[in-house]
Automatic annotation (TrEMBL):
InterPro entries: TPR-like_helical_dom_sf (IPR011990), TPR_rpt (IPR019734). Pfam families: TPR_19. TPR repeats lie at residues 173-206. Keywords: TPR repeat. It comes from Tritonibacter scottomollicae (Epibacterium scottomollicae). This is Tetratricopeptide repeat protein.
Length: 283
């Protein structure tokens, strides 16, 4: 805002001088006014993208892009708001329009790959990431590389990319959780349990990691809840997850007991657990 004030003051002074000389350069004034508008609009775009309702932001940026189709900042705003609105097919098309613009950066290509993955177009995402120079070493790039390696069951590459991604962020809980889930799908339950535990050390409130930790323990027929921070509702949900894991392992009586404990623990009626218990009791 200080820069905006200085620009406005400078513009005002220029107009005063021009007025005194009776030689106003209309083109120069118009250019200066456009500069002020761009500053104001950039601030507005940032506010709309970060704090508005996602679909309202989509409408705002769609209208803006129609008026200025070659403005890369507006196209980025549209693509980003479509991601927030979970309209992934449209988002992928929007990011494609961004990367087709002359000013497109490597970050834009990574964002396109992200949108393609969200849209379940893994092959195209791989093609897009392959066009990004290896010198573009960012957290988002390596996180996506790890996910694609997982989808291709290239476990060695996945582990390498996850490890690199962890080192490129100050908030690695989500990466540890994804890495743990990768280990879980491979059948490396002890490795998965370790990584989920690391995720919770980084973010004790990450419920997805709590649930996955219970799954990894259940897969090893360890049906005791881990010693982690949890609310009463979370405890009930984790007992429900553990119960289903026990049933899957063939330990039906253990599963029934865990379901009853989940129902008793939940502060309200736990419909999912009640239905599961009823199904077991009815054979």
């Amino acid at each position: 805002m200080r820069h905006l004030g200085l620009l406005s003051a400078g513009l005002f002074g220029a107009l005063i001088l021009a007025s005194c000389a009776k030689e106003i350069d209309k083109d120069a004034v118009e250019r200066a006014l456009q500069d002020v508008n761009v500053i104001d609009e950039s601030n507005l775009n940032s506010v709309v993208l970060s704090s508005s309702d996602p679909n309202e932001a989509v409408t705002y940026f769609q209208r803006s892009v129609q008026q200025s189709p070659d403005r890369i900042d507006l196209n980025r705003g549209l693509a980003g708001s479509l991601i927030r609105a979970k309209r992934y097919t449209e988002a992928a098309a929007a990011w494609q329009r961004v990367v087709d613009l002359p000013e497109a950066s490597s970050d834009d290509h990574v964002a396109l790959a992200d949108a393609l993955i969200r849209n379940n177009d893994w092959d195209k995402a791989r093609e897009v990431l392959d066009t990004v120079p290896p010198t573009h070493e960012t957290f988002k790039r390596y996180r996506l590389e790890a996910m694609i390696a997982d989808s291709e069951q290239d476990w060695k590459a996945a582990d390498s990319f996850y490890e690199t991604a962890v080192g490129l962020t100050t908030k690695p809980a989500g990466v540890f959780n994804n890495w743990g889930y990768s280990k879980l799908t491979r059948g490396d339950y002890t490795g998965a349990e370790r990584l989920f535990g690391e995720a919770l050390r980084q973010d004790p409130n990450l419920f997805t990691a709590k649930n996955n930790l219970v799954l990894s323990r259940g897969a090893q027929r360890n049906y005791s809840l881990p010693v982690i921070t949890m609310t009463q509702t979370e405890r009930a949900k984790l007992l429900h997850t553990m119960a289903l894991s026990a049933v899957k392992q063939g330990d039906v009586s253990t599963g029934e007991g865990l379901l009853r404990e989940a129902i008793d623990t939940h502060p309200q009626h736990f419909d999912a657990a009640a239905r599961a218990l009823e199904a077991l009791e009815n054979g």
